[in-house]
Structures are given as structure tokens and as C-alpha cells.
Amino acid sequence: MGGTARRVLAIDAAFAACSVAVLADGDVAGQRFEAMTRGHAERLLPMVREVMAAAGFGFETLDLIAVTIGPGHFTGLRVGLSAAQGLSLALDRPLAGVTTLEAVAAASAVDEPLAVALESKRADLYLQVFKGGQALTEAASTLPERLAAFPWPEGEIALAGDGAARLAPILAFAGRRWRRVGPDLPDAATVARIATSRQGTIAARAAEPLYLRPPDVTLPKERAR
Q1: Do 68 and 123 fall into the same domain?
Q2: Does any domain span residue 149?
Q3: In which band, very low, low, confident or very high, does the pLDDT at 225 lie, cut at 50, 70 and 90?
């Protein structure tokens, strides 16, 4: 499908929330965001139907499906990816991936260097530093005792993501200036905008899961026959 996508459905279930949005010509036509620690699998597809009903057009009119690919919590991440892949196959529409870190960064819109820190549910933080929409570091899974040695840029650092509360005192102890900005978690509307802007370019991402460390839960192995 050539050209820019006019109608985009985006999904995120990678952390402690489910988020679904539909964009039509760049404007939000329908959107839901619900915080939850469990129940993503039961709630996500009903949210998709609710958002499409609010938008007022059918699934067959969609041009692109977008989804967060990680890093994130293993179960929620798989739920979001599976739902997006199923819709992509059923509708025969392209599927685009967006990382959770870049989605939070894009929604923050600050001029100074921005550190996005997201909670992994373990000791480590998912961390990446951006400036002007461009990544200054690779996405990493970093333990608190290693944060002081992270390649921080000079000057004041803006902090976003639900892991910022853990990162802030470490930066303060190291004598670094910081300020808190939002959001805490990815939002599907931002995911849709990023995927649309990258469609057909070299920056476009495949919808393949991004794991920065081994998962807490593993999929069952197929039994030998």
C-alpha cells in the first residue's frame, strides 16, 4: 500500500495499562486508556471494538496497524503483539512496530536531553536517552548500581516514564540536575503518529518483540514426539 496511511489503529499493552487509538488524517478519531496490572488479554480486544465504534468507521477502512514492540512486561507485550498481528492478517493491512521508550519520548516534547525510564517489574530499569526526538543511547536494561556510570549527556536532564521516581534520586546523589516531565507510560495515539510518520521510510520498524533481558515468564516448550 503506497502513500501515507489515512486511518491508523494503534495498540499498546506492554506495561500496567491497555491503550488503543485510531487516527484519521492525523487526528484522534477514537481513544481509550485503562490502567491495569492484569487482565490485558480479556480487555484489549473489547477496547479495540469500542474505539472503532467511537471512530465511526469499519475495520476494512483502516490503512495501517501499529503496536508497541517492547521493552515491556512479557505477558502484556505478547498480548498486544498477538492482537495486532491477528488484525493485520485478518484485514490484510501492514503492521508497524514502535518501541515503548520512543513512544514515551515522543509524547514528552522537551528541548533538553530526555531520559525515559520504564519499570521492568524487577530490579532493573528499561532506559534510553533522547534529544530532539533522536536517540542518544541504545535502549538498555540497567541495574540501579550501574546508573551512575550510564553515558549521561551534559546539563539538566528531563525524566519521563514510570521508572523516573527510581532514577531521580540516583541522579541527584550524583549531583545532576533533573526535572520531571510526562508521561509515565506509552499512549496509543503517539504510537499511531510515530508509525504513520515512518511508513515507507528506512526508519520503519517491523513488529518484532524487543526484549532487553530474559523474560520472567517463558512460553511452554513443545513436547518431543
Answers
A1: no
A2: yes
A3: very low
Among 33-37, 109-113, 137-141, 162-166, which stretch is predicted with the lowest mean pLDDT? Answer: 109-113
Provide the CATH number for the domain around residue 129. 3.30.420.40
Q: Where would I find the H helices in the chain?
A: 40-55, 74-91, 100-108, 164-173, 188-198
Instruction: Give yes or no: residues 119 and 139 share one domain.
Output: yes
User: Which of these, 51, 106, 129, lies nearest to 83 by C-alpha position?
Assistant: 51
For 188-205, how does the pLDDT look when each residue is reduced to its tens digit (9 = 90+)? 999 999 999 998 887 889
Nearest partner of 3 among 94, 134, 98, judged by Cα = 94
- CB distance 49 to 34 below 8 Å: no
Beta bridge partners of 96: 66
pTM of the model: 0.91
